[in-house]
Every structure is written in structure tokens, then in C-alpha cells.
């Protein structure tokens, strides 16, 4: 974890203590280790944030029945604020967010309540006392998909309901009960979008369910193991998943293509949690589809603060490439999605990154390599740290682009990526004129 992130976590935990979300003993566990899912696909550090916008709004209830509201930045995973609201007058058993100001909750007797809330930057309150709108709701889990369908599980049965009003008053607005299937004994349940559910199981699987208009369902296994540590799971859409461990740590993940039914492209942020502890809510629910993420094809290869823009158009001393002067230990990132290889010799601890089109990017003279050969990485993923190994006369990053063995000048690409612009196609880059 970076020094900046340690400082941020301490600040957030201090705020949570003031709000009563954590105890001093819990905060003392800040330095402990939580059991969280380990990636079988892509791992990335906090230094290169996801291209996500919108908001992540999470409602929750504490064990004493008080309501909570938290907001998270979807692009960084940083918690922005948490408010503690009033006692609801009952202890909810299941909770679903219909919209920013409307929640549904059940109690132990099966009564369904509508909760009308108001929140701002400083406080969380109720517009009125929770309104009972139904009975017989013995569900252990409730989630809303943001498109008119409320899902719940009861005794392993997955049920679907149609919600026809933003503030339902009863069965006239929550109806068309449909049994989707049996065997849905799930540890945690969330909705990721229109008739799409995400779930974890006691044996650690991460599963996705898709419900058809006819009420049939299909499932995909996104991960075969290591997700059992999450007692709660929520998603604001955009392929963003947030899991809370029994110890109260919240971790976040981004599925680069949430429509492909595969988990190999999930970005794991285990080294950059939202919070290491403090999420003591008994229930947690996200407002559906409030975040949007755009997959990137390219990413800048260094932290922006590592070197000035003016260094990125310098010629190389010998051939089409560039030597960027940066101190030893500067993080370097994947410029695009591709497969990692290791290269030695004059490059010292070198890394090759080859994309699906056969374009190869070379990172030379690294002090250390942070990814294994054969690993598939995403744009912006941490590859290692710059150094002074191999045939090098000083700390720097050697960067070059090869297509069918031909070297292309990388300067125009680096300048565009530094500026946040779409870079030119690698094949369009010149093969000469960038050396002396």
C-alpha cells in the first residue's frame, strides 16, 4: 500500500470512529490481514485507477436497527463519506435500494416496509417513519436490479417481483410474483444490472445469474474459489463489485467486461481496499446502475508525477526507442492489454508485453519485475519498478515498440497518453527520426 493510501485509510477510519461505525478495538485491527479473494486473472495496484464515473451510493443497517449511508468514488475506490441515521424502529432482515430516496426492508416477522430517506453532505434522516406495505415477506435476501424487478431468496427459492412505482404502497405496486428456480442457497447476493445477479457461495464460488423475460435462468462461474470470505456483496453497476468481510473490511473489484460471463478479466484491488475495517453493518445495499465504467485500450506507462512531459519527446541515442530518466523504484504500468514475457541480456530485468495484434512493447532496465511471464495484464496494471540493471549508465526506463521485429518510435504515443488523448495506432508510428 502506498504512503498516500495509508494516510487516506487512517483518515477514513478516524472519521468512522467519530461516527460510531467502528470501535477502537476494531480500528486497532487496521494492520491485520483480511482473508480476501485472490485473483486467478488480473491484479492491479492503486496507482492506475479505473475509468469509472457516476456514484456509488450504499445504504446499510447496523445491528441495532440504525440506518447508514456511504458514498464511494467509483474511479478510485476511496470512501468519500459515511452518515449514521436514525433508528428504524425495527431490525431489518433484508434490505433493497429502489432509488436514492427509497428503500425496502423486511423484519423478522415478514413485514415489508418502505423507507423514505433524505440525505445530504452532512446528515441522513427519514422523511417519515417506515411504512408497512406488506406481509409474508420471509426472504433472507432482497436486491433490486434498477429496471423494475425485485429479487429475493427464501428457503433456497429465487423469486422475482415487478415493482411498478418508485414509491410502492403495497401489493398493487409490487406484484407478479414469479418463482425463478430452487437451489439458490447463497452466502451473498447483489444485482449488477437488468435481470442480472451476482452471488457468492459458502464454498467460495463467485457466480453470475441472468434471468430471461420468460423467467428462465442461466448461470456462469466467474471464480471457482476464494470468495467465501465475503459476508456481503453489492454492485452499483459498471462491472464494479464491492465485498465486505466478516472482519469489516471492504474490497473492490472491476469486471472489465461484465457482459462476457467470464471472470478472467476481473481487476483485483486487494492492495487498495476501500477500508481495511469499519464496515460493521448487518445489511448493505447499493443503488442500482449508478456507476459507469469504460474499458481502456491504452494507459500511460508511468505515474504522471514521475517525469515532466518535456522528457517524452526526447530522441533515443541509438535507434527507434526512448530512454525516460526516472529514479529507481518508480512504478511502471502496462500500456495496453497483453501477455507478459521476461527479457534479459542488455535489458537487465526487462519485460515484454505483446498485445492481441502482435505488437510488442519492451520495458528495459527494471529494478524489479512484478508480474510473472505468461500473465495477461490490463492497461494500467503494475508491471514492476524502474531501475538501472543491464547495459545502463543510470536509472531510467527504456521503452520501445516492435511490430514484426521492426522498431517504431514511441514518443507520439507516450505524449498522447500523458495528455489523456487517444494515441496513434502503433503501426502508424514512424520507424526513424527519433534517434541521434
Automatic annotation (TrEMBL):
Family matches, as InterPro entries: Cell_wall_metabolism_enzyme, Dup_hybrid_motif, M23ase_b-sheet_dom, Quinoprotein_ADH-like_sf, Tachylectin2
N-terminal signal peptide: 1-27
Domain Tachylectin: 83-262
Keyword Signal: yes
Domain M23ase beta-sheet core, residue spans: 321-407
Xref: Pfam families: Peptidase_M23, Tachylectin
DNA damage as UniProt keyword: no
Record key words, sorted: Signal
Protein name in UniProt: Peptidoglycan DD-metalloendopeptidase family protein
Organism: [Kitasatospora] papulosa
Amino acid at each position: 500500500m502506498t504512503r498516500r493510501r495509508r494516510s487516506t485509510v487512517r483518515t477514513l477510519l478516524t472519521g468512522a470512529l467519530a461516527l460510531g461505525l467502528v470501535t477502537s478495538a476494531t480500528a486497532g485491527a487496521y494492520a491485520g490481514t483480511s482473508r480476501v479473494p485472490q485473483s486467478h486473472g488480473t491484479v492491479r495496484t492503486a496507482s492506475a485507477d479505473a475509468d469509472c464515473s457516476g456514484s456509488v451510493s450504499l445504504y446499510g443497517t447496523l445491528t441495532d436497527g440504525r440506518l447508514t449511508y456511504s458514498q464511494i468514488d467509483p474511479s478510485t475506490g476511496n470512501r468519500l463519506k459515511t452518515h449514521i441515521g436514525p433508528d428504524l424502529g425495527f431490525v431489518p432482515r433484508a434490505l433493497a435500494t429502489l432509488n436514492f430516496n427509497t428503500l425496502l426492508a423486511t423484519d423478522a416477522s415478514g413485514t415489508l416496509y418502505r423507507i423514505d430517506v433524505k440525505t445530504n453532505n452532512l446528515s441522513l434522516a427519514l422523511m417519515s417513519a417506515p411504512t408497512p406495505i406488506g406481509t409474508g415477506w420471509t426472504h433472507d435476501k432482497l436486491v433490486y436490479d434498477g429496471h423494475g424487478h425485485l429479487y429475493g431468496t427464501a428457503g433456497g427459492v429465487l423469486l422475482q417481483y415487478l415493482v411498478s412505482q418508485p414509491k410502492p404502497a403495497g401489493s398493487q405496486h409490487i406484484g407478479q410474483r414469479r418463482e425463478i428456480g430452487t437451489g439458490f442457497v447463497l452466502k451473498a447476493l447483489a444485482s449488477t444490472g437488468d435481470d442480472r445477479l451476482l452471488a457468492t457461495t459458502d464454498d467460495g464460488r463467485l457466480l453470475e445469474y441472468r434471468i430471461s423475460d420468460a423467467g428462465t435462468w442461466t448461470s456462469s462461474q466467474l471464480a471457482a474459489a476464494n470468495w467465501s470470505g465475503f459476508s456481503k456483496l453489492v454492485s452499483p453497476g459498471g462491472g464494479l463489485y464491492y465485498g465486505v468481510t466478516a472482519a469489516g473490511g471492504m474490497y473492490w473489484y472491476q469486471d472489465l467486461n461484465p457482459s462476457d460471463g467470464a471472470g478472467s478479466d476481473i481487476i483485483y484491488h486487494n492492495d487498495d481496499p476501500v477500508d481495511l475495517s469499519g464496515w460493521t453493518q448487518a445489511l448493505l445495499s447499493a443503488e442500482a446502475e449508478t456507476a459507469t465504467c469504460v474499458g481502456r485500450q491504452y494507459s500511460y506507462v508511468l505515474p504522471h508525477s514521475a517525469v515532466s512531459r518535456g522528457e517524452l519527446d526526447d530522441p533515443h541515442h541509438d535507434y527507434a526507442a526512448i530512454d525516460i530518466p526516472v529514479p529507481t523504484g518508480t512504478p511502471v504500468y502496462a500500456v495496453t492489454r497483453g501477455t507478459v514475457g521476461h527479457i534479459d541480456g542488455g535489458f537487465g530485468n526487462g519485460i515484454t508485453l505483446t498485445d492481441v495484434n502482435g505488437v510488442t512493447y519492451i520495458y528495459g532496465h527494471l529494478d524489479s519485475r512484478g508480474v510473472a511471464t505468461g500473465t495477461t495484464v490490463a492497461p494500467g496494471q503494475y508491471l514492476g519498478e524502474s531501475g538501472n540493471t543491464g547495459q545502463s549508465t543510470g536509472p531510467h526506463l527504456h521503452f520501445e515498440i516492435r511490430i514484426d521485429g521492426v522498431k517504431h518510435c514511441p514518443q507520439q504515443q507516450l505524449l498522447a497518453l500523458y495528455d489523456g488523448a487517444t494515441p496513434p495506432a502503433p503501426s502508424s508510428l514512424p520507424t526513424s527520426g527519433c534517434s541521434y
